[in-house]
TrEMBL record:
Designated name of the protein: UDP-glucuronosyltransferase
GO molecular function, one term: glucuronosyltransferase activity
PROSITE patterns on file: UDPGT
Catalytic activity annotation: glucuronate acceptor + UDP-alpha-D-glucuronate = acceptor beta-D-glucuronoside + UDP + H(+)
Enzyme Commission number: 2.4.1.17
Source organism of the structure: Panagrolaimus davidi
Length: 522
């Protein structure tokens, strides 16, 4: 009897869940992140399906092989996402200011895909067939919320392969003061310490985003659902607000400090791979080539070498030539390497063993665009960084590098042979950078809780208590901007003090009148 009871208890606690992971796919880092979530959940004993919406059909990976069913959904025509500025010209200065093209491409992508998804009824059938206990949806697209509502799946949780983006902070009523919380996706040099002009720009941008741009993203999709299912179909904003939890790819040590609510769980680092500790012979030889060590240079996988102007390449080569005691391993997928042929310390390679290299003590510096994965890998390996952010959250990550003291930031618009040489020189000769990098590595390693465990525990908990999200909702999630910023209170106070002032004024005036009368009489 006792035994049976224990078995019953066990069954109760490791009840296997049926989970859907919904991924709109803008780029490979997103699929790697959601794929890892699938892997972790399957390894914890749950059944997981994955629905991939191919914004970027060039990314073929599913991120996982452990999902029970994987469905990929694409358009019959070209995806508008592939024409977005940062995809086509990564080296252009796209500041994501309100009047940029980026929101236009984003909106176009959102509406075209959502339209196709709603029209294709077999997609909804596929979702219903799964009989899911809960769903994890990408933070970058709300169309799924409409489909989950139709399929009656609850609770909905969110994952973001980046930091908490403004969109979700604003929807969930989480403080995002323009004075010190930069928009992590706005690539314009703002960190958490801003000048007055930067603060003004941050406030203007956030207000515009909040009032106009972000609502427009949901609006284009709302209209699709309302056209098909009638005007009473709930707005995607309302559905999205009811999400129970948001898992973000950030870590307290690898972000700029900001407030959160209980709806946010940080699971940064789940995609991090262990170094195998084994370098290929090719890299072994290259690392031993120069006596002071090596520099690793990579702009990641999204920005193709050919999309970067040759002029910029030449500047890099000339700057590297100023450090003949160091080997430079350059991840270079272009064909023309002629311009660097005279510099014997530069090795262009098509593919690098990034983690193994960064974990090798002979590597003294990592020159990187600081995509989130590169930031994580350099931080966990204790390697100093020269950050040259290209787009989106990379600028934010560059500020993290600077504020942890593990490296420097150089804007792509400021790249010259002199500025590059100077920055490289500083990091290689000033020990504070490598010391801080080693210290950060240690702090990360000994962090008291583990991201994977956080993810599993919360998904299991939230899936079993379906209204948990309502309990922890901030009231601010339901407030208008006017009410949120105490506009109503100021309004009342203003009129109260105005009335008081008027009353005092009238009394004084009356006494004045009395006084005058008295004087007249005398
Ligand atoms: C991704 O999943 C689909 C559907 O299961 C499958 O056809 C395809 O081969 C997978 N792609 C890769 C790269 O494994
Ligand atoms: C672990 O730490 C992160 C970051 O502070 C936090 O978001 C998460 O809730 C913690 N997990 C647990 C289980 O306490
Ligand atoms: C390499 O050096 C040679 C000899 O100094 C010079 O003629 C040639 O133009 C150089 N090539 C490049 C690509 O700079
Ligand atoms: C090294 O860099 C740190 C941080 O930028 C700076 O405070 C310090 O003065 C530098 N030391 C030297 C010797 O330049
Ligand atoms: C927020 O507002 C919506 C409709 O505007 C309402 O349905 C919901 O109950 C409100 N939530 C809270 C917590 O007040």
């Amino acid at each position: 009897m006792k035994k049976l009871f224990i078995i019953f208890l066990c069954i109760h606690f490791i009840h296997s869940l049926n989970i859907l992971v919904y991924q709109t796919l803008p780029g490979s880092s997103h699929i790697a992140f959601s794929g890892k979530i699938v892997d972790i959940l399957v390894q914890a004993g749950h059944t997981v399906d994955k629905l991939i919406i191919e914004w970027n059909p060039n990314v073929l990976s599913n991120g996982t092989t452990l999902a029970r069913r994987i469905k990929r959904f694409g358009l019959n025509t070209n995806s508008p996402w592939l024409s977005a500025t940062h995809v086509v010209k990564p080296f252009d200065n796209v500041y994501y200011h309100p009047f940029d093209d980026e929101p236009v491409f984003y909106r176009k992508t959102l509406s075209q895909f959502c339209e196709a998804m709603v029209e294709d009824e077999s997609l909804l059938e596929w979702i219903k067939e799964g009989k899911y206990d809960s769903v994890l949806s990408s933070a970058y697209d709300a169309c799924g919320h409409g489909l989950f509502h139709l399929a009656e799946i609850k609770p909905v949780m969110i994952y973001s392969p980046t930091n908490l983006i403004d969109h979700w902070a604003l929807m969930l009523g989480i403080p995002a003061m323009a004075s010190y919380v930069p928009n992590p996706l706005r690539n314009n040099g703002q960190g958490d310490k801003m000048s007055l002009t930067q603060k003004i720009s941050a406030l203007a941008d956030r207000t515009y985003q909040q009032q106009i741009v972000l609502p427009s993203y949901h609006e284009v999709q709302n209209s699709i659902f309302q056209r098909k299912f009638g005007p009473s179909f709930p707005s995607l904003t309302e559905l999205a607000k009811q999400s129970s939890m948001v898992f973000v790819n950030s870590h307290p040590l690898l972000e700029l400090g900001r407030p959160y609510s209980h709806k946010i769980q940080q699971i940064g680092g789940i995609t991090l791979k262990e170094s195998s500790g084994k370098l290929s012979n090719e890299f072994e030889e290259i690392l031993n080539d120069r006596y002071k060590g090596a520099i690793v240079f990579s702009f990641g996988s999204l920005a193709k070498t050919d999309q970067i102007p040759i002029k910029i390449h030449e500047i890099f080569a000339k700057a590297f030539n100023n450090f003949p005691q160091y080997t430079v391993i350059w991840k270079f997928d272009g064909e023309n390497t002629e311009f660097m042929s005279n510099y014997s310390n530069i090795y262009p390679v098509k593919w690098i063993q990034q983690i193994e290299l960064l974990n090798d003590p002979r590597v003294k510096l990592f020159i990187s665009h600081t995509g989130l994965n590169s930031l994580l890998e350099s931080a966990h390996s204790g390697t100093p960084v020269l950050s040259i952010p290209l787009f989106l959250d990379q600028n934010y990550n560059a500020h993290v590098v600077e504020s942890r003291g593990v490296g420097l930031k150089l804007l792509k618009s400021e790249i010259t042979v002199a500025s590059l040489t100077d920055a490289i020189q500083k990091i290689l000769t000033n020990e504070s950078f490598s010391e801080n990098a080693k210290n950060l590595q240690k702090m990360l390693k000994n962090f008291p809780n583990k991201s994977e465990k956080t993810l599993i525990n919360w998904i299991e908990y939230v899936s079993s208590f379906k209204d948990y999200g309502n309990h922890i909702q901030l009231q601010s999630a339901n407030m208008s901007t006017f009410e949120y910023f105490c506009g109503d209170i100021f309004f009342v106070l203003f009129f109260a003090s105005f009335s008081l002032f008027y009353l005092l004024y009238s009394i004084l005036k009356y006494f004045h009148f009395l006084l005058k009368q008295k004087l007249k009489i005398e």
